[in-house]
Write a structure and sequence with these properties.
This protein is of the alpha+beta class. 17% of the residues lie in helices and 31% in strands. It is built from two helices and 15 strands. Strand 3 and strand 4 form a beta hairpin. It is globular and about 45 Å long. 30% of the residues are buried. The model has no long low-confidence stretch (mean pLDDT 88).
């Protein structure tokens, strides 16, 4: 099994209509920060984006929960064919909506996080990204040096560990929208 086989790429996870409804909704965004267990990172700026969290009982929560569940089910089938065992999800985090305007980016990092995104149940085993649009320039998503071509409504899932560093390149035109959740 090659490392790229551990990345799942699924089409038609969210409808274009739902993606547009989420983008058009008037959420209250805040500037994202890159934090460590000791607080904000003292290093150079590692992220430039606005974010907001969609939590239980919020608008779109159930739609996103269903989408992430669908991704997890598809990934379970894929992993079972390689591993002869199930990929089991016991918990998911809430959903972080990421808004990258021109100049926005997220530096290369790994998602081996603990208690920084509201999870109360261990380390995440997989990261799920839902892509809400593709009408922007720049903003390429790289995972372990690969650059998958992503379209509106698609999803990526990959292990949340050191072998899958990822980043979002600088946006040069338009606004890039995505949602992330972590599976435990």
């Amino acid at each position: 099994m090659k490392w790229i086989d551990w990345v799942g790429h699924y089409k038609n996870i969210l409808s274009v209509e739902l993606c547009n409804q989420i983008i058009d909704h008037k959420f209250n965004y805040v500037k994202s920060t890159y934090s460590t267990h000791k607080g904000l990172s003292p290093n150079k700026k590692r992220v430039e984006m606005d974010e907001m969290w969609i939590r239980k009982d919020d608008i779109f929560y159930n739609d996103l929960k269903d989408a992430v569940s669908e991704v997890a089910k598809k990934y379970t089938v894929k992993m079972k064919s390689f591993l002869d065992r199930d990929f089991v999800v016991q918990k998911t985090t809430d959903f972080r909506l990421n808004k990258y305007d021109v100049g926005g980016f997220m530096s290369r990092h790994c998602d081996n996080i603990h208690h920084s995104h509201g999870q109360t149940y261990g380390y995440p085993q997989a990261s799920v990204l839902l892509f809400l649009n593709d009408n922007f320039k720049g903003g390429e998503f790289l995972v372990s040096e690969e650059q998958p071509t992503i379209k509106t409504g698609e999803a990526l899932i990959f292990p949340s560990n050191f072998m899958f560093p990822h980043e979002v390149k600088k946006i040069t035109q338009g606004t890039r929208w995505s949602i992330v959740s972590w599976l435990m």
